[in-house]
Write a structure and sequence with these properties.
The protein has about 300 residues and is α/β, with parallel strands linked by helices. The protein contains 10 helices and 14 strands. Helix 5 crosses helix 6 (about 135-145) and helix 7 (about 165-170) packs antiparallel against helix 8 (about 175-185). It is elongated. The two termini are about 30 Å apart.
Length: about 300
């Protein structure tokens, strides 16, 4: 997948099969659109293109809103890499860009710059100034500017409509299993390992303190989780503590990950932690011995969960 930053830097294609949107989290509903996009491109001998935006439009148009996102730009690129897309365009979203009329958006960006011949969009998709553009508008513009348009209906899983709202709700309740079902992959936090107080090492459970610098990242509910830590292509079974650490008199919310059965040096490394299963809520222990005893229980629980 070729990543281009800014529409002005994209080389126009002779036959682009395109879609556009924020695609936060790249969940199953998004993948339905992208799969259709990739298949259509193969069918017509074209190239698949996703036009997305950074920062998220709501951060620009509603700066006072506390927006929690499912993926940072780095995480979204990694997820999109797996879909088979040919091209990803990340265009800066500004207030000036938001005032682009729907007709100009289609004519100048989709047709003249990208070279769209087929447009695939999600259910109830809107675009352009004040979200004035719709599927009906695209059907009108298509014959004029020489492209076909296809709308993908809402995707249902077990009669439950997949949406970012439902995924956020599941994560805030600590139900990472349900969130992963909606996403079609494990919910992941990416960051850099920084030095902590190294108290876990004295208990026989050394941890990687993961610093995530994307301040709008939605974190699951506080708790202890089983998961997978990925670093430089290597994957390790792990358990993680997300939240405060009352036993250590710390109210600061952090993500600490212990690689089970592995002694590895991770300081300053870029890592990804995949949440697989919620093991328990955060607890306040009377002393470190009680905490260590619980950590042994957590380790067994994590290995059981990961084996499933």
């Amino acid at each position: 997948m070729k990543v281009t930053y800014g529409l002005e830097n994209f080389q126009t294609l002779s036959c682009a099969v395109a879609t556009t949107g924020t695609f936060d989290g790249v969940h199953l509903g998004h993948k339905k659109i992208l799969n259709q996009l990739v298949e259509k491109a193969k069918e017509v001998g074209g190239q698949s293109v996703l036009l997305t935006f950074s920062p998220h439009p709501r951060l620009v148009l509603q700066p006072d809103t506390e927006l929690e996102l499912l993926s940072s730009e780095r995480e979204k690129i990694a997820l999109l890499e797996k879909t088979g897309l040919d091209h990803l365009i990340i265009h800066p979203f500004t207030k000036e860009f938001s005032r682009t009329q729907s007709l100009d958006f289609v004519r100048e960006f989709l047709v003249n710059i990208i070279g769209v011949k087929h447009l695939v969009i999600g259910y109830d998709h809107h675009f352009g100034r004040n979200r004035e553009g719709s599927f009906e508008h695209l059907k009108e513009f298509g014959p004029i500017y020489g492209f076909e348009v296809e709308e993908i209906k809402a995707l249902d899983i077990d009669t439950v409509n997949v949406s970012s709202t439902k995924i956020r709700k599941a994560l805030k309740e600590g139900d990472v299993g349900l969130a992963n079902t909606y996403l079609g992959t494990a919910y992941t936090i990416s960051g850099t390992v920084v030095k902590g107080k190294q108290i876990g090492r004295t208990l026989g459970f050394p941890t990687a303190n993961i610093h995530y610098d994307f301040k709008h990242k939605l974190l699951p509910a506080d708790g202890v989780y089983a998961g997978i830590l990925e670093c430089n292509g290597q994957r390790f079974k792990a358990m993680a503590n997300l939240g405060a650490r009352p036993t250590l008199n710390s109210e600061h919310r952090i993500l600490e990950v212990h690689c089970i059965g592995e002694e590895i040096e991770l300081y300053n490394s870029d890592v990804n932690f995949e949440f697989r299963s919620h093991l328990r809520d955060i607890q306040d222990f009377h002393n470190l011995d009680a905490l260590k005893e619980q950590l042994e229980i957590d380790k067994k629980g994590a290995l059981t969960a990961l084996a499933q």
